[in-house]
């Protein structure tokens, strides 16, 4: 079979399969999903931070020379600041055309409505950012799958299933974030499925331009990592501080740790499977 067709099929498997598996979360009854959703936010925080610090950032630094470490670190910093500015613009846009028009005769009531709308739009912007960040991340996954296929077909197949496996818990977290941001189940599924297709785009792009993408790949990884760090720290963690009782706090900590441990475990398993399939790590610097 033509190698390009294999890349398209298995990048689709690596991206779409994880979304389809995670979408089982959306099939739960409303009362069950509403009960699980706050816990899902805690889990998503751990998953996003683990993907960034355990997966994307180390891999990015493996792909560059020591003299490029500072520029790569600067990319992560610029990404965090850039996502802050982007979220500000998203909130400003929503407020400028929506909640800021709420002011009228009853100033106190409208001020309360304005603040409520502002928080609502802040949650909505978190959903927009997770879609953007996940799209970048999936694009990079597609590049890695295509690189594996160009090395060895068996390694490419193994890598695509490894990507799908470690993406599932993160996609569950993404669904939780989108629902928390006010998206309906249908819209959450549609946008998550849409971003999963950037895996195919990354694979096809890498198939034709892998040599040219090699130097920029670490910076894609850094930008994806910065988006996940920003979302977890700036948007999700503050929402956990609304409940300060001991029981809820301990549950939040436990679920964050669970998200970290699961992603780290799956990442280690996927890495070991890749090494077993080829005898060497996927990194092209090895």
UniProtKB/TrEMBL annotation:
InterPro entries named in the record: ZIP
Principal location listed in the UniProt entry: membrane
Entry's localization field: Membrane
Gene Ontology MF annotations: metal ion transmembrane transporter activity
Membrane topology reported for the UniProt record: Multi-pass membrane protein
Spans through the membrane: 6-28, 35-57, 69-86, 189-210, 216-237, 249-270
Family matches, as Pfam families: Zip
Keyword Transmembrane attached: yes
This protein's GO CC annotations: membrane
Alphabetical keyword list: Membrane, Transmembrane, Transmembrane helix
Protein name per UniProt: Zinc and cadmium transporter
Species whose genome carries this gene: Candidatus Methylobacter favarea
């Amino acid at each position: 079979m033509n190698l390009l067709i294999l890349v398209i099929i298995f990048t689709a498997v690596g991206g779409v399969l994880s979304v389809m598996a995670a979408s089982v979360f959306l099939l739960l009854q409303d009362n069950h999903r509403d009960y699980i959703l706050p816990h899902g936010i805690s889990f998503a925080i751990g998953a996003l931070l683990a993907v960034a610090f355990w997966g994307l950032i180390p891999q990015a630094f493996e792909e560059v020379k020591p003299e490029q470490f500072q520029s790569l670190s600067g990319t992560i910093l610029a990404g965090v600041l850039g996502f802050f500015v982007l979220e500000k613009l998203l909130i400003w846009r929503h407020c400028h055309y929506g909640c800021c028009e709420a002011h009228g005769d009853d100033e106190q009531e409208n001020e309360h409505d304005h603040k409520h709308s502002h928080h609502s739009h802040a949650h909505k912007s978190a959903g927009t950012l997770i879609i953007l960040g996940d799209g970048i991340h999936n694009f990079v996954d597609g590049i890695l799958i295509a690189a594996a296929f160009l090395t060895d077909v068996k390694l490419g197949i193994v890598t695509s299933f490894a990507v799908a496996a470690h993406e599932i818990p993160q996609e569950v977290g993404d669904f939780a974030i989108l629902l928390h941001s006010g998206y309906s189940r249908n819209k959450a599924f549609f946008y998550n499925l849409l971003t999963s297709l950037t895996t195919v785009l990354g694979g096809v792009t890498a198939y034709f331009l892998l040599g040219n993408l090699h130097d920029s790949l670490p910076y894609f990884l850094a930008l994806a990592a910065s988006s996940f760090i920003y979302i977890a720290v700036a948007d999700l963690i503050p929402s956990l501080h609304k409940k300060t009782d001991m029981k809820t706090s301990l549950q939040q900590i436990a679920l964050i740790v669970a998200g970290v441990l699961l992603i780290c475990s799956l990442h280690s398993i996927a890495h070991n499977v890749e090494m077993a399939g080829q005898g060497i790590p996927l990194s092209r610097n090895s």
